[in-house]
Amino acid sequence: MERYRVRVEPMRSDCHSRPPRPRESEEQAAHSTSDYPRRRSQRKATPQQQGWRATKRSSKLGRRNRREARADDLKQQLNEGVRATKNRVLGVAQIAGMVLVGAIAVIAVLALLALGINTGARWLAKREVERGASPEERSEKAKENLLIIGSSGSSAEFLAVRLDETDDQILGIAIPSGAFMEVPGQGFERVGDSFSAGPGVSLAAVSNFLAVPFEHYVVIDAAIYQDALANQSLRDVMGNVTDTDLSAEEREDIAQFISEVTGDRTALVPLPVKPIDLGSQTFFEPQRDKIADLLLQWWGVKLGAEDAAVRVIIYNGVGTPGIAGMAAQQLIAAGMRVVDTKNADRFDYDTTMIAVQNGDMAQGEQVKAAIGVGEVIDQPSEQDVADMIVIIGKDYVPPATSGQ
Predict the structure, then answer these.
(1) Which of 290, 305, 320 represents a domain boundary (last residue)?
(2) 344-364 pLDDT, tens per residue?
């Protein structure tokens, strides 16, 4: 039997000798022989700076980075704040603009509605006035009306009365002598002075102011007039008449009706006026709007009805005293409203001129029919005082009984 020789090699004594690797465990061997061998990273580690200089540089860099980061954050916040503020301002501006546009639109609509309503109301009022402007209609409305004139020389006071036979009542408005109003032929004057030109002028002045037609009058002494107002009774009036345009039969019928009306069915109220002192004299400005309810209830006249009628300014173009007032009485009796009477720029007009300024040609023809003459011309104007301008010429012939 051979002997096996075991050769023992001497150990290396050099310094590069490696110690023997330990045997791998079965688990490690199994892991090393698995299907997914472990990969080694190819990235190299960043060399770390060492020493206090590196630390100092790192600290400065960090502070700078932090400052820049804070600055960027602050800038971003400011930008966001500016954008937010800008958006809010724009939003508020848009809302304000929408509100403003809406308000303007509402105002415009309301203005148009008001204009339409006013225009429509005036148109309706004009149509109503026109329907009642015929002589027959005005006579029917005036048959219950009577102007009682309390005379004291050349001046007078007036009691505009309605003798309401339907409801057995007497209703009246007392107008003081010093009340200023448009007096045909005299202009804006004390209504008491109208009596000096005749009862017809007084009838026209009162009718023109109240927009109520008066065609008949009785004249009594001023003392009887004052007693009637104080006692709220007209029982003594018809027995003390000094002048009238009524027939004897008409006077008797009126006296009979007055005697049958009880005191509680009689209402005589003063016209509201505003005193105006001019030197040593006191004048009165009538407050027609304050008797609007009475005019509506007693005569069916609405406030503003005087503006719904055809408004006329009359000029004396021939120089004859009082001729414009005579024409004014005719126009007032025809249901028109005279807003002024005065002298023309000259007195040599041969033909009466009727200038239509704020009406229509048909109304101009109505004016011509009322005074009997005239040339109707279309002359639009922006003024809103009168609808017609009438210049009396030599062709005008006043009625024989006008004004007296």
Answers:
(1) 305
(2) 999 999 999 999 998 889 999
